Fold this protein.
Amino acid sequence: MNALKPTSVEVRLPSRLGYEKVAMSTAAAVAKLMGFREDRVEDLKTAVAEACINAIEHGNRLNEGLSVGVVLSADADQLEVKVIDDGKGMKGLPRKPDMDRKMHGEEDPRGMGMFLIQALVDEAEWVTGVNGKSSYVRLVIRLDKEPE
């Protein structure tokens, strides 16, 4: 990838579970072209999948008349991914899940996606769109430089 010229790739997905795999594959391809290590590519794929599933389920509420936009912006040292839906967004982050309670079946095992995303990328930001439309999550993963 040309280090001097930023590159942008856009994908539009139907609001149907399973199509998050298209975004995962696209993000992985761009990250590999940029020279990301395989473990970081896997982290990115998981974070993008979680963000897309959240957009499909919670943002667009599985409404197949709506789509999820995925915009990948690459530059010399990082890849930014925006996953955009037509939902109203969130007010603050949910409380941190109690992993022990989830592991023992005392709490719903779901609801950990946002925390997983935050653990896998260098930056994660949830943004509410104007007038409660076009909310998005912005993920940034930085390219590790090889020691000289």
Observations:
- The helical segments are 20-34, 38-59, 99-103, 113-120.
